[in-house]
Amino acid sequence: PAGTINRGAVIDPSYFPYEFEEYAEGMPLGDLDITLDWADEDKTELTATATAKFVQNLEGTNYRISIALVADGLKNDNWKQSNYYAGEEPDGIDSDLWDLFINGKSKVAGLTFNDVVVYYPDVFGIENTIPENISITEGYTASISVKKDDVVNLAGQQFINEDATVKAVAIILDATTGTPVNANK
């Protein structure tokens, strides 16, 4: 397993407590607020609205707001996670989840998946949401509306179970590099 902070260098998760503090103490260029509400009384469509505000005036930027929907609590008896740890020695790690994998088969069923991106229409950001010259006195807003029936897997099937939770994630992207500047959910 490995992870990244701010899409930076891939690091071992055991270093997160030490690496995270340095990132958490830094100030991002912009702040984000996001809301996710039902757009209709029948609860067939969601609207996510994000507002970005910056801590300094900036010129010549190429930032965009991007919005994704993520789900927690996804599960399906037919889903199986590839397991490359089957038959491995625990190597000093002691946890029920680790035991599930080292004692499991090459595919593990019955897992619950969290923080899964389930809808992301503008992976490069929504054009014209943040101007080239940014003022600290302005807020920059973007919205997306999503019909519940449009949230489907690659086979075109709905897959979000009734007890799952859906959240909106707003991202300020540097559209030149594709790097997130900040995010909030």
Q: What does it look like?
A:
This protein has 185 residues and is mainly β. The protein is 9% helix and 35% strand. Strand 1 and strand 2 (45-54) form a beta hairpin. The longest helix has 10 residues, at 16-25.
Give keywords.
single chain; 185 residues; mainly beta; four-stranded antiparallel sheet; 9% helix; 35% strand
Q: Tell me roughly what share of residues is in helical segments.
A: under 10%
Secondary-structure element series: HEEEEHEEEEE
Total strand count, please? Answer: 9
Number of discrete helical segments: 2
- Rounded average pLDDT: 89
In percent terms, what proportion of residues is strand?
Answer: 25-35%
Low-confidence stretches: none
Radius of gyration: 20 Å
Q: Briefly note the structural class of the backbone.
A: mainly beta
Please summarize the sheet with the most strands. Answer: 4 strands, antiparallel
Shape, principal axes of CA atoms:
flat
Q: Give the termini separation.
A: 24 Å
Q: Order the strands across the largest sheet as they lie in space.
A: 6-3-8-9
